[in-house]
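Why show two proteins at once? Because comparison is the fastest way to build intuition. When a single record is shown, students tend to memorize it. When two are placed side by side, the eye starts asking what differs. So, the first record is below.
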Amino acid sequence: MTPTPSADSVAIALSRLTVPDTNAVRQAERNLEALGRSPSCIEPLTHLICSHPSPSIRQLAAVMLRRYLPDHWPSLPPPAKASIRAALIPRIPAEPAQLSRKAIVALACDLCSLDDAIWPELLQLVATLAAADNPDLVVVAFAIVDGFVDAVNDLVVEHIPALAPLLAKGMEHPVPKVRVAAFHAFVACAGPAAMAKGDSFPALEPHIPKIVAVATGHQDTRSDEFGRITCGVFEVLALVMEDPAGPLIRKYFESALEFAERMFVSTDVAPMARAAANEFLVGSATVRPKHMRKLGAALRLVQSACKVIFDNAAFAGAPSSFGHDDDDPDEDEVNAILLSLRLLDAMARRPELSKLVFTEVMSVISRTFEATQNAPPEHRDATVAAGYRIIGAICRGCTHEVTVHARDVLTKLANGAHDANAGFPTRARAIEALGLACEALDDVEMPDEELEDLANISLTAILHGMRDPELFVNRHACMALEASVSLFRDDTTKQLRARVAEIIHTLSALSPEISVEAITAVGVLAEHAVSALLSSEMFKDVVEGIVRLISQTGKTDVHARVAALEAAGSLVSNCKDQSVIERFSAQAISCLDSDDPSCKQAAYSFFERMADSVGGNVVAVFGVKVLTSAIESIENHDTIDPTDDDDDEGVSRNGLGPSNDEDARREYGMYVRTSLLEEKTLAVHCVGAFASATTTDSFMKRMASSPETAATIRSLLRSGCKHIDDLTFSFHEEIRAAAYRAHCRIIGANVMLMANRPELAFGRTELTTDGFSRLAYGAMEDSNVWVTATVLKSLATFIELISVDMVAEHKTAVTDVIRGVLASETACQEPREYDSGDEHFTDDADIEGEDMAALIEAVGEVVEAMAHSLRGFFADDFPSILSEMLEAFFKLSRSPRSRGMVFGAVAGVLLYLNFDKCTNFTPPAPGGTEEEFARKVTDNVAAEILPVALNAIKSMEGKILQRNAVFLAGVIFSKARASNEAVWARLPEALQIFQKILVAGNASDGALIDNVAGAVARILSSKAAPRQVLGDPNAMLQAILNVVPLHNDPTENTTIARTLISVAQSNFDILVSAGQVQKVVSCLVSAALISWEAQKRTEQRIRPDVDDGDLNDRMTGLEDMEFQSLVLILGRIREGLGDQPFSKLNLAPPDAKSLAEIFQCQGLKA
């Protein structure tokens, strides 16, 4: 039996925690930990808390008892529990030392969760102390309330209505410290009260003006205490902004905005207060933009933000404000600029505010520039730099406005980059903003010639910046290059080839000090101008430069080496030159032996890209080495816990050595752990890619002559599969997601090999069922929304890979998984925390959209994959699943992005309900057809979702929402029965919306126009559509063909071809009488050629050498039946109109030959 330690011996052990000797402290920690494992520690610790003369010993005793008491409480006899309560509760008001009292309050509040008998005693103590005349005792009362929330916030909710009057009275107390204590207790209670149903938050709500009064009445506005108070005010106001009904918003929003604006623009408040105000304003702009505009706050905030930036213009262009110097002495001024820029960016991203923001910003900048024309050069320079910075901040949000005024904006910024009289920070800011403006133009529909002209304006300025004498400007010119080059839609033009040669020549002349930025720029060319780069006479020099940087091994060359590997990966993904591939790969192999984690990570990323793009050749040559290294990386770091900040033992082994700076040691240890985790994640991805590449024809041919190597690779993949399977239980979400995706790719590859080349398979047939079980378990059991979405996407891919019989075998299990995910707590949990700076407003699309939208999209992909694989066989399960999907989707989707994903998921699934050509379908009812069944299901869905979709199109809340809402509306109209009056009554409204979008033409979102064209085509192809509503079908098709451009990317033409095919199958005469036969034929021929090439690739190998990890990549051309329909339509056009439309195409000889081959294979006259 363990002897009971004396209070004196425990006090001595606790006192050793305060000595400056690290070894003595650690020994004391070990002794106290051993003591705490025994219930005998409770009595001496309680005695020390109540009677020891030293405040630090009383505090440490309370902390230690709080740590170990929960472990022993269940085993204590009732008299011992009563003794602890009787000792601790009276000690709270008697404790004179603040820190000791705080520790005892925390201990007592923790006891509330262990013993319900303590609640009445503590609540009575709070009431007694709150009524005391001594302000110190009143402060203690509110400290207890604050402690309640920290310890047991769920249990305290029911007592909030009783506490609310005490808190309100405390915030009106004449003594400032009492008001502050009551304020903090009020803020602590507001969070759990708002989350709980009932009368808790309504009891607090009338007293909200008092918390603002506490803040405005505080004397020292520069103090940290004022900063914390202001943070609390905005925390409560943010809860008000989330009121779904709206009355609280109308009641408080205007005064809340006024207070936030005052804090934001004031130069005499604590930085924390200004930052809190900024967070509130950013959240308000994101969640309540219409309210802001209606109140006139939006315009005032734009003007205020610009004023803050111009008032601190001297710091706007400084190198430190680019984020390179964390110890900047002018941190307050720089932070004021950053906060203002963030607010402008947030407002610009809202469609309701973007035009106002752009117009007012450009007006303010113009007036400010004009006012400083005669100012001293330094002041004028700083002002111009600040103006450029503001333009850059709003470009990403004001996409439409930047597009409309693109030439003026780019010319203004290009002139700034060329201005030799300006200071170098000003030139750098102009180039930075130029890159952001080009980035805004990247997604818009605009004639190629006009876009290339704009690209040339920006590229000329960027090249000028690369030749600037200041390295600082060179660096930012390299960083802006990508956005400019990406504006060239066609990378085969002579103009771009000439520009690429000029870029490479300029990059080669840059200082070695910015080699990282230079080689990154080469990677940009490999991504966006690969044809021009490959045809350049300097291509060999580029390859040599990359090889030279990868081969460098010095510590100072690590970043350049990593950048070179990334550039090599980008280049080889688009280059089929085997000698270049092998040179890069041979150098990348050496990086696997590097001591620097970033080099090894870059190497794994490189080989993953190689396996996905080049295929089996890389795996055959380098597979053994890469897989061996990857599996070692996976094995070596199995026990790393990224949340363990106290494990310092490995730090000294990495060279830091003993140090008294524990924070530095912990920080370095965390860096090491994070690097190793990233290495493991990339190694997992690499193994999955290599497994997938073993199914390629190139790998099989190589392995035919090297059976020993093939056997080694199979053995390594089996080993890798085992380790990756274990990682699906990892505590680290990124590793779990990577493991599930790699697991899917490994098992999927094995399934394909078992079916086609069983001698090359690396697992048993049972792996198929095991693989499905692992994915199903992960989707059902994982606690993270993002990981669940990743697992579901892998499951959808898995369903695409396995045979129809296997899909049918697992049909019930899949439906159980879908229902389980939709009903699970995982789907309803809070999204991951992002470093978005928006901690109060969970409706932000950037936060909620990332996870919830991914989950919604993934569920839709699984159902779509099942419907696609099983066709009619899945139809009997579909109505109930669709109903559950809709119910869960609308419950989960709070942001425009996730609502858009709802529409896309439902529309994608509905498309697969109509397979009247499918011969193995058994109708669900006697005499019924699948088409009729599809229309019945659609009728049930349409009444609920069609009005919502049409409103979403008109709301202009986001691109994804609008595009997918249009897509869904078109699908519903195309499948609705003629008797469904509720659907067809909405058709005039829908056609009017579609017409407005088509009339807008290139000024609108190009993808949205394509979707509108597709929706109109679906309506035209529907035999159930009422002709009296449609009007003239020829005019409608003419309108479609006028706005839908022919793209340089043939896959885009495939999308358009589908809409034309659907029209032709219903009404062929419309297709050839719209006056644009030439354009119709061009589009259809383009789609036919790409589909024909895709079919030939499929015949040559088991699968194309592409990444099969994403369901969206499963198809590059039309499906078989679509392709046959397309060729028949082309044949009818040629038969009816002769060769005239075909002769005008001016097809290249290879394309003309392919077209003839297509006709011949389909039994038509070549």
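Second record. Ask yourself what differs from the first in the token line.
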Amino acid sequence: MINLKRIAAFCCLLLSSIRMFAAVINQSQPTITLKEALTMASKQYEVSFIYEDELVRNKRVSPPAAGQFRKVEDYLSIVLKPFPLRFKKLGGTQYAIYAKRAAAPVEEKEKTNQVATGNAANTQAASGQPSPHVAEIQVRTGSDTATRRLVQGIVMDESLAPVSSASVIVPGAKVLAVTNTRGEFAIQVPLAARTLQVSCIAYETQQVPLGSYLFYKVVLKDKTGYLKPVEVVSTGYVNLPKERATGSFGVVTSKELEKVPVANVIQRLEGQVPGLQMTITAGDNSFVYDNVTPAPASNTRTIGQNDYNLNIRGNTTLQSERMPLIVVDGFPTELDLKTFNPNDIEQITFLRDAAAASIWGARAANGVIVIQTKKGRARMPVVNFSVGFSTQDRPSLDHLGLMNATQVLAYEKELVDKGIINDYIYNPYTAGVRYYVSDGIDLAYQLKSGRITQAEYDTRAAAMGALNNYGQISRYLMQRATSQQYNLSVSGGSDVHTYYLSGSYSKERPSTIGNFGERMTLTANQDFRIIRKITLSMSLKGSFFNYRQGGIGAGALSNGGRTFMPYNSIVDEQGNHGRFYYSIGRHYADSLQGLGYRDWAYDYLDELALAGNSASDNNYTGTLNLNIPIYKGLSFNASYALERSYFTNRIFNRENSFYTRDLYNMGTTMQNGQLVHALPQGGILATNRTDLNNYSARGQFAYNGSFRGKHELTTLAGMEARQTSVSAARATLFGYNEQTGIAQVVPFGQMYSTVTGVNWFSGSPEQNDKRKRFLSYYGNAAYTFMGRYTLSGSLRYDDYNNFGLDRKYRAKPFWSSGISWNIAREPFMGRAVWVNALSLRLTYGVNGNINQEARPFTNIYIAAADQQTGLPYAGISAAANPALRWESTYVTNLGLDYSLFDGRLGGSIDVYNKSGKDIIYPLEINPTYSSIYTLLLNGVTISNRGVDIGVNGALVDNRRFGWNMGLNFSYNTNKVTDNRFQPSSSFYSSLSGTIEGYPTDAVWVYRNAGLDSTGMTQIFDEKGGKVGPSQNVSDIGAMKYAGRRTAPYYGAFNNTLRYGNWSLYVLATYNFGSVFLRPAVSNYPSTRRFDYSLSGDIAERWQHPGDETNTLVPGVQGIYAGRSAYRYAFSDANVEPGDYIRLRELSLGYTVPESVAGKVWARNIKVNAVVRNLGLIWKKNKAGLDPDFVPVLSSNVLHMPPVTQYSLVLNVGF
């Protein structure tokens, strides 16, 4: 269960922080102008005021605390009391402020009227009534005879956020106003005008009837499927207007994230941004990864590595981290993306080139993903609630391509008949055999040894061959995958305090019975105005995971000593549980059990009940940000971030579990007629705890200003210190009693006799601590002239403690420069009214990457005790490299952004070149004296070139029907351009993607030359001659380049159809140009290796002379049978094209009319029915395989293809 005590404590911390800071604000709040006090009231109470400037000028008040008064009248009575001012309600939500000497504001000139409005819905909406698209405030205008009058207002979207850059015109008149960043506008309209027209890219145009009114609130509806203009992009350090950014950015907003109802943000990003390449291999879960355990000793990420992979613009490293840097609310995070609730995210910005990412220096070579979470706005509280349910069927095992029972029996009989399973090595009746002997092998062995006749064998084999019980895996070990999601958020605030509070709960049950996961997230983002414009931002986030991972599932079919055979029965026809002897032969186990040994049988269903693998993962993050304006655009910002994670894994093998019984029996020997037990009775508990403690402190000065209407300058400079600390501890307790918590002491490292030889006690307590420190100095500047020409530059100097004491190893500068030209603002573009935006960008710079395990000094490890002497000992874990340097990636980017035809067509085109230099390569060395097999050296250069294209268009757009399309296309070519350590061996495993002139993800294969007359695989050597498995090949020329594992062409295509309140969203993804290896048998059992493979390829194997003309699958017999199978598996005979088009999602949504939603006091209600993982629309390979889910029987992760998922999601806003 999730730790409720910790969550309760975290909630108390959130609440106390809100109260504490609110109290501080109230106590320290200085006097403010009367005009500011009225503005606060308009936002707090959803009203508007009309008054003359002279009445409020030079007047200051001490405002009451927000929320102190329920009615605006009470608030005004206190605020206006010190002055000779009165108020009068004119109707609706409008109030007039007037001097005491005046009777009433009957005749007021419009040109002196000032209107203060809130940033929220009108009073009707607050009381549960449907809010109209236009809210009007009526006031008598007097008898002005001028030809024009002033009309003011505010434009908002459906979430009540201000819409900037909206156009406000009077049809037929030459007057225009554009809303500012707060959504406000003011326009002089002819007296005879009867309509205002408000329009903005990606929103429906609104016609506003004009009456005798001064102020209008206009709410624009989203135009479904339109590409909304990205007003601001974030680098994590600074927010920049898109039009002034020279770098290459990709942006995903909360609107796009909402389209994919999955608990993990990873799945929601697929197909959203050009240049982002994703491979998702988790078909039945989102955050319940195959591996949830941190690996502190690893140089790269381990959590989720079997479930997803993503990169930005290809790969420029070999041994270092390939995952992009993740930045959340301005600070890097070491946590996985599953930690963050997608519903809390406002915007995700992808930094793709040097100008965008170089500000992050040594961690930016792989690109940067900047996440901004939601914040509150000064408005009445807004509540959003959503709930979602998903389900999908069990995965189909047909995808694995396994042999049936008859084929398996024939294969096993051949192994016995040809002596591969022989009397000396695999006799199931004698000791010394620690291998699984299947029923088919046992039956064949009995026939060969004369224990049964051929007729008996035929009868029993026919009965077993008729079973084909793979279906029992699905029935007893797998289930329908289900998930649930619940989200609740509240946001609002006043001028001095805004807040965003949210909580979510998600639960997932993957298709493997026994696996389970739940996640709870809590978020509190607050902003306080302390004194005048000094602001303090505070964010507290918590995520709490609970896992259970005792399932078996389809893993029972993996290669190994416990492979489930198709003739096996988990439960037989009488309902009895199947019993399997996965450690020693059944007959020998029975004889030992008669002597007093414990039961040695394995029962699948009992093991599920006895499973005790659980884990918890609690994560906390907190940030403080203080911003102090100094003088006219100059400000100082101080910020601090703390990140802590506590992971605990508890694997308890109960006393009756197979693991414990097997270990206990193996350690039991007969001495002087008595059984002697090396292991104590009881369970075996293995614990693993990893604590992460990170902090960052930053101080920076920033300037943002303009001069003489032509010059704009944005600069920042600062320094940052960061430390990451990880502490990992693990231990094993033997003879553990779950009720008392007591374990027995065992002599770790000491050997003991077993049934099959010797073993020793492993699992002694271990402690692993690591600390990394970074110190950085950085600066960034952007200058814009006349709103058209922008120059930018950035510089960052990184220092890292694990590169030694000498600064020449540690410190490294990274930089970038860029220019942009806003063509659309040029005078010569005045006649091109169909061009809304057009800009050209060019950037160049260098980013870095860190290999956190490579150091210029020798690393040693200290072990507790030697197994022979019992004395402590030390060894070398990493050899010194005094010439070690940081990896550097030089990036050139040329980009074009455009928006045409009032936003009906828009997108971007980027062409880039990435050159990775000083890339670290593992050079093989002689391990005779050091036990070190490789030395990490700088010496490889990698080139990435490519194109990113994003296009969005509205094909049909009218009030009732709309059809919008979006296309992302990316191309990336990758190759090693220089390698001082070129591999010279042709052995397949040595080709690690470092062959000069070829990609880092190159697929190298043997050139298959067919089978010889004995059934052995032949290949062509470098000279074109045929060689058999007994002959070595030593030249790389014997290998063939088959293509790339990663598709060079990739992207996504989406369509949105809208009819009335209905919408249909379709997402398809595609990959072109990659290859993969079709699953094939890569090994046969031998006297040295006894792994079972159920690959269907085996049924096509060579068995008799002449078969070589009909098959390429080698035979099982011969001293080189293993090498023969290996060369066949990794030959060009099994290369398949990886091209495909996948239908990823189909979503049907319905928005409840506002008039209906208002009857249940809701602001909006939307229902979505979503179908995901609909399958491949097209694939190029003829093997019938999904290229992203190629089954690998030799792995614990079988890569089962995703089954179609059905979801229902309800969103309600109040």
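One difference worth noting in the second protein: Confidence is low (pLDDT under 50) at residues 19-29, 101-145.
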